[in-house]
Design brief:
Elements: H1 10-20, H2 25-34, H3 41-49, H4 57-69, H5 110-117, E1 125-136, E2 142-153, E3 158-166, E4 176-181, E5 183-191, E6 196-207, E7 212-220, E8 229-233, E9 238-246, E10 255-261, E11 269-273, E12 281-287, E13 293-299
Parallel strand pairs: 1-9
Antiparallel strand pairs: 1-2, 2-7, 3-6, 4-7, 5-6, 8-13, 9-12, 10-11, 10-13
Amino acid sequence: MHHPIPLDTFPTALTGAIEDRGMSLDQLQRKLAAHGVRVSLSTLSYWRRGRTRPERPESLRAVEVIEEVLALPRGCLTGLLGPRKPRGRWVSRGGVVRPHETLWDDTSGLPSVLAELGEPGAGELTYLSVHDRHFVDVGGRDVRTVVRVLVRSEVDSLGSMVVLHRADPGDHALPVLLAPVGCALGRVRSVPSSRFTAAEVLFDRRLSAGQTAVFEYEVRWFGDARADRYSRACRRGVRDYLVEVNFHPALLPTSSYAFTQDAADEPEVRLANLEVGTFGGIHAVITDTESPIVGVRWTWPA
């Protein structure tokens, strides 16, 4: 006999329906796949806990199939979603934490590592600014990036956060983090299956709600091929993003531009063209964008 399904919010209704059918998230995922709908376990878990909600067309289609799989009346779940939530800096403090799979093409092994390292939850941390200074060698290969971050805690007693950096497919090693300033590097985990290095950043003190922390560190890269792009994937929105790319004077690009992307599988949206300066660098300032992926791309001489 089925129990009544609570219909006050989407997370409680989804949780009630799944529990009422005695189904695990793994089983639900397999049933969705059988209907030609692919949704990651982390996304299903986030929907169930209310950390994120379905908004993209393919996600709304998945919810319709969930209604069918769980033998629910049509609209039982989709009717609880309401209008799309606001994005960007106008979201309440802490902002939206986007699912991993919208930002990268492969996140295998990553969710469990982030859970182990204690990544702050939705609403606990706000990125105020990020400044990436990226360096490319004489062969056009990525060498290192100096990252400087300003964050604000939205809760009391926040002492750490987690940062992610991902190797390109052709790199012969995963990125290495070093030279922290204003912070310490705690636990570091490698995720070879999806080419990530995840690191715990320890603040210089525990932050109360409203307090800020500023820190920097360096990332070393181990690429074998010429790079033609540098990007940052932002699970949490960044109000102010500054990216610099410094090229070796013996090999300068012929053109470059800034871009944004709405997801890893979406096309780049070209922004301003960038001019290579006298000293072999380009930079872009991107503010208040709703897009979670931001960066610069360049073209090498033929």
